[in-house]
Specification:
- This protein has 49 residues and is of the alpha+beta class.
- The chain has helices at residues 14-20, 26-29, 41-44, and strands at residues 7-8, 11-12.
- It has a domain at 1-32.
- It has a two-stranded antiparallel sheet.
- The chain is elongated.
Length: 49
Amino acid sequence: MDDSAILYADWNTRALRHATAGHLPSVVNRGRKKVGFTTPEDAWFGKVA
C-alpha cells in the first residue's frame, strides 16, 4: 500500500475507514478520539505483581 492508505487529508487509517464506511455508524467511522485501556497481562500470563 502506498502512504495515502494510512494518512490522507489529515485522516489516519484511511483504508480501514473506507472498508468499514457502510458497516459502522459515521460517528464511529469518522471519530478522531482514540480510547485506550489497560489489559490484565499479569493475570493472563500468571505473573505475580
